Amino acid sequence: MKNEQQIGQSYSRLEGDQKVTGAAKYSGDMNIPGLLYGQVLNSTIVKGRIIAFDTSDAMAYPGVIEIFWHENRPSLTWFSQLYSDMDAPPGSPFRPLHDEKIVCYGQPIGLVVAETLEQARYAASLVHVEYEEEEFVMDLMDNLDKARAPKVGMATTLKPPPPKPQGDFEKAFETSFAKATGDFFHGTEHHNPIELFATTTVYEGEGKVCIYDKTQGTVNCQLYVGNVFGLHFKNVRVISTYVGGGFGSGLRPQYQLFMSVMAALQLKRPVRVTLDRQQMFTFGHRPPTRQLTRFGAEANGRVNALFHEAVGETSQFEDYTETVVNWAHMLYPADNTLFKYKLVPLDVFSPLDMRAPGGSTAMHAIESTMDDLSYQLNMDPVDLRLLNYAEKDVSTGRPYSSKELRQCYVQGAEKFGWHERNPQPRSMKRGNKLVGLGMATGIWESMTLPARAQAVLTREGKLEVSCAVTDIGTGTKTIMTQIAADELGLPMEDVSFFYGDSKMAFAPIQGGSFTTSSVGSAIKAAGKALRKKLFKKAQSISGSPFSGVAIEDVMFKNGWIRLKSATDTGVLLTSLISENRGRPFKTTNFSVPNIFKLKKYSRAAHSAVFVEVEVDEQLGMVNVTRAVTAVAAGRIINPKTARSQILGGMVWSISKALREETIPDYRFGKYMNANLSEYHIPVHADIFNLDVVFVEENDEIVNELGSKGVGEIGLVGMPPAIANAIYHATGRRINQFPIHLDKLL
Amino acid sequence: MELPISTPDISTEQISATSEVNFTINGTEQQVTVSPWTSLIDTLREQLDLTGTKKGCDHGQCGACTVLCDGKRILSCLTLTVMKNGSSITTIEGIAGENGLHPLQQAFIDHDAFQCGYCTPGQICSAIGMMKEGRAKTREEVKELMSGNLCRCGANVGIIDAIMEINNGGKHE
Q1: What are the backbone angles phi and psi of residue A130, rounded to the nearest 5°?
Q2: What's the pLDDT at B12?
Q3: Which residues of B touch A684 (CB under 8 A)?
Q4: Which residue in the set B46, B96, B156 is minimally distant from A651, CB to CB?
Q5: Of the candidates B49, B55, B112, which has its C-beta nearest A12's C-beta?
């Protein structure tokens, strides 16, 4: 059938041809005539100041055009808050080349610009820098006594502080029948998209630049560049059509953007700055976090006491926070609770949201502690969760807009074959390997932010929709085209979605699983307005079949507006163009979430994850041999790309639980494994059977689409499910991520 | 960052010396003038505007820069251009035929074997090289021999599914 709904269909990515043929141009791929190359210099000390910066050898080297550093950079805004951005935490944002002060290892301190890449890179090695060093602190666990409450700011609205205590935790825990306590830690992680951060800035005349940037927010970078360099926003265009992975790293403007724009404006030539892999470890990261839990339950298994405390790392200049201790009570309705969240400022760069920030950290502690509790109660882990199922969010007293988590447990367990599990740890074997089955729950809040979209019916009767939002590989282009197609009842081939350009309608940064809901709602708003416009015009035609008809009584289908009651009566959309003197119909609309309605509900996506591991105790090796993630995330716009999102989250889970960590040397204040051979992520050989189940969930409250987003939910539940499976296999509960072989030998 | 720990003691003349290299790129004969230290990936990307070959680490650790050289998969970031005089190089831009996509490219689309698409050119070139090596028959063997190509989006399942479809002589799994 030609005219079926596009939402809900599995489409391959519309930009697939571009990506498999190498035609897709990323920000570091823009070869502009006369292009200059910039190589960033980074601090080799952790803390102190620059006392000498000798560029004479480097400047004498052939091909070198200019070297920028704090003493010769152009004068910029003096007001530090103008360096702020949509994802800036409370504090004072880092200002590249601002002064001689060094605040962390790898801080950018200069830029060498040359005619070729090789010249720039070599000349950078000829710059001689002298420093005066100061004492620094970098070890979170060694500085827990410095923990303090985080500062409050704009960002706090999306990252609320811990909920207030309820009941009397200490008393209730003391008298609990079963008690589980845990001390959890994970170290620093870096996003490490495979694409290196790169910016190509094209100088377009006095005060005007066109910037190809690797980012998750074109408008965010446009505002940043305008503010920092004092340019009119209309003279700053940021384009980011293809982004080679984000995972949060592009939520804030990174320093290559600053460097590239600065050099292009000064030299009045196009300049590209690409970071190298080591430099990818010199900006935001997931902060190391220590968590303590104490959960108590009554003899019947009811959880009656919840304590969760988290202490996270931040920099000395910003208070980066995460929502860590707010989740347990959303899932488990205990009467007595106590939650604490603190920060320790250290001499590192500011942490930065990294896929499922806070949530994936929290679930590690919460779901491992629940698993522990299940053994103490001698209950099946799934049964314990079903017994303590929260019909409403007792942490706020609000109902859920929808919650099909129970079905996630049921369908996930069924698909996985959970019933075959022998509850006894160390009871299951395959050859010489121990086999363990574990499970855990996932939850991620569904947010919607204001966004804008433009919809145009072209002269040819095609629909063109546009928004400044990026597509970081999440399938945004494809699903927005699907959403738009349904607005006018058009087939996919008659609809185009344009994106990744700050000149287009406003979009917030792309992250937090809120793009589908935010931009999708904007497209629906623009589609609705366009339908209204078209219908009004159709009514104005002399002899219109729609005179006296309400818009609710017509439908838009295959390029026609037709009466619902008499589908043979209608007006062709293209005929309206001639009625409009040959001009296309155009509308741009804002979609703002209805806060008053939404705040009556808690809105979240949920998951239940089931994992099988094989553990070789002689070698300490762990393989995740199979896993099932059952997800309830409202309406799934495109099951094919959504499944890939969840699978990606599952691979990240294996990485988080078993592989990746940035290892600091606290004596030297540096990361020791700033490269892709020692920063381990799973390779193909590490990935076995992964399966995804989407549970049907109808939500008429969360947003107009009823869709909750799937970017993070694949990552929150699975890491603890892996740890729980390792416990089941080995009888050893390891609460530190990643679980490397040394912990299992 | 901090590239050479000590600057090598070489003269500017030595560094600026250039050589002519003649090779075939995607079926077309090319002549380039390069410094001895110029890597193949930088020649492809910066001189020949073949930006489909991607740089993810510049150290041979991620596989994003994989191209085919005389039919074999190589890491173009660990290859000096001057080493390849007379060679025939195929980059991702040369994989599709006149009649459209290579079957593996189509399989990548069908199996949603990529998200951001950045590692994709390297995965495809590497897989074509691997299939030519003829060593991998089973899924486990393919996974092992493709493990030099990292994917941070976690599209591993789709990538291996796509390769298996073609590796089995076009039979769908």
Answers
A1: -115, 145
A2: 65
A3: 142-144, 146-147, 149, 151, 156, 159-160
A4: B156
A5: B112
**Which one of B3, B49, B53 has the shortest CB-CB distance to A124?**
B3
User: How far are the Cα atoms of A120, A121, A517, B22, B35 from residue B32, in angstroms, in the given order?
Assistant: 20, 21, 50, 7, 10
Q: Is the pTM of this model over 0.90?
A: yes
In tens, the pLDDT along A614-649 reads: 999 999 999 999 999 999 999 999 999 999 999 999
- Inter-axis angle of helices B156-167 and B103-110, nearest 10: 140
Helix (H) or strand (E) holding A96: none
Q: Residue A107's closest chain B neighbor by CA?
A: B1
pLDDT tens for each residue of A186-219: 999 999 999 999 999 999 998 999 999 999 999 9
B24 touches chain A (CB under 8 A): no
Residues of B in contact with A271 (CB under 8 A): none
Q: Does B156 touch chain A (CB under 8 A)?
A: yes
- For B115, the token pair is 């998200």
DSSP collapsed to 3 states, A601-636: CECEEEEEEEEEEEEECCCCEEEEEEEEEEEECECC
Nearest residue, CB atoms, A684 vs list B37, B106, B159:
B159
- Tell whether omega for the bond before A738 is within 30 degrees of 0, i.e. cis: yes
Interface of B with A in 30-89 (CB under 8 A): 35, 37-38, 42, 45-46, 49-59, 61-62, 64
Sheet of A433-445: strands edge to edge? A428-430, A433-445, A604-616, A621-632, A689-694
Segment (H or E) for A65: strand A64-69
Predicted local confidence at residue B7, as pLDDT: 56
Closest Cβ–Cβ partner in A13, A121, A684 for B160: A684
Q: Which two tokens stand for residue B122?
A: 């390297």
With 0-12 CB in 10 A as exposed, 13-18 as middle and 19+ as buried, what is A190?
buried
pLDDT mean across residues, chain A = 96
What gap in Å lies between CA A577 and CA A586, rounded to an integer? 11
CB distance B117–A24 less than 8 Å?
yes
Distance from the Cα of A665 to chain B's closest Cα (Å) equals 17
pLDDT digits (tens, 9 = 90+) for A142-193: 999 999 999 988 777 889 999 999 999 999 999 999 999 999 999 999 999 9
DSSP assignment of A545-557: TTTT--GGGEEEE
* Separation CA B30–CA B34 (nearest Å): 12
Partners of residue A44 in chain B, C-beta under 8 Å: 2
For A654-690, the pLDDT digits (tens) are 999 999 999 999 999 999 999 999 999 999 999 999 9
User: What is the amino acid identity at position A708?
Assistant: K
Q: How many of the other CB atoms lie within 10 Å of CB of A478?
A: 23
The three-state secondary structure class of A386 is: helix
Report residue B151 as tokens.
Answer: 């994917």
Contact (Cβ atoms closer than 8 angstroms) between residue A195 and residue B56: yes
Distance from CA of A347 to the nearest CA of B (A): 19
Give residue A1's pLDDT band: very low, low, confident or very high (50, 70, 90): very low
